[in-house]
Amino acid sequence: MLKLYHNDMSSCAQKVRFVLAEKAVEWESEELNLRAGDQLKPEFLQINPKGLVPVLEHDGNILIESNVIIEYLNEVFPEPALLPADAYGRALARRWMKRLDDGVHLETIVLSFGIAFRHQLIATLETDEALEHHFSSIPDPYIQNVQRQVVTGGIGSPRFEQAILVFEKLLKELDQELASHTWIVGDALTLSDIAYAPYGTRLEHLHLSRMWDNKPNFARWYEAIKETSGYQTGLAEWFNPNYLPLMDKAGNEAWPRIAKLLAAIDT
Ligand SMILES: N[C@@H](CCC(=O)N[C@@H](CS)C(=O)NCC(=O)O)C(=O)O
Hints:
The chain has about 270 residues and is an alpha+beta fold. The chain has two domains: about 1-75, 3-Layer(aba) Sandwich (Glutaredoxin), CATH 3.40.30.10; about 85-265, Glutathione S-transferase Yfyf (Class Pi), Chain A, domain 2, CATH 1.20.1050. It has helices at about 10-25, 40-45, 65-75, 85-125, 130-135, 140-155, 160-175, 190-205, 215-225, 230-235, 245-265; strands at about 1-5, 30, 55-60, 60-65.
């Protein structure tokens, strides 16, 4: 039995659903409402004390961490292979995936909450006390810290600047990498492409695809990955129509500040 605890718009859950779709495996869905705090309820904290999705349950074993989960799925369901046949290729794919855990994902939280999700939290929780209660119930101190800064300060928060810097550097490097091959580590789709797809998507949903107007190779890669059936089944079919207009509108409003930050990086 394969059961996924997930959320429709969660970037880490998106990559797991993408892999499940590529592998054409059946799975049972247990969806959590993250804005309602389902992930912080005692019954879920018993499953993942970090209070985060995705969680995969397979034959009685619990797995957390999306990159670990997709590697596991790739081993347990070997067809189609989603890592290169050679050890060096696999090392390259893992290096790119590690980078997500080393900071990119945290910066995505900064962008998403700083631009858009803060509005949902502020509207739902209403008072400073309720917001503080929300922050202090987040088990991971890093996430607690970034949420506190950017939910409160929004795009004016100094923490926001760092996120733009990290993404601009990442997109430039990916653009360079993709100049010489179709996918991130060669000419076949791998877990590294699948792991990065949700981050391009998050930027697009936040009206930030303008960040790759000057990065043609990344733009080509992103359009190609959106065409895959795994993307359609694992991501697009789950997009939440209640989130998209807010993300788009708030992202559009944030653009002048972001454009200024980007111009400062380039000079
Ligand atoms: N490193 C973890 C990160 C998981 C994570 O941050 N999950 C987010 C959704 S993408 C979450 O559950 N957030 C809960 C919240 O927003 O409170 C992974 O790769 O699985």
